[in-house]
Amino acid sequence: MAENTTRPSLPIRVSARVTGDSALIKALLTHPMENGLGKTAAGETIPANFITEVSVFVNDALVASLQTGPGIAADPLFGWKVGGVSVGDTVRVSWRDNQGAEQSQASTAH
Description:
7 strands, three-stranded antiparallel β-sheet, single chain, four-stranded antiparallel β-sheet, mainly beta
């Protein structure tokens, strides 16, 4: 397993491309997603640190929510096809992890 490194907190990369009356929303979440089983070069256990919840909002209305766990790779990419999204709508993706950290990022549908 790779050694745990400290990475700066980067915004979620969100895009929402409208086709007809729906949009393909994609979000790249910057997160180490450590499962708690890895070891450092010194043999110390790397603490579990993974996203537990992801939420998607369109114009502040919740349209998707999912629970995740330690089995997802670092910096996961998620995608959703959501109906009723128009060009100019605000799309926001948020996550929370098992250590209480949270992050959110909005984008305009195009």
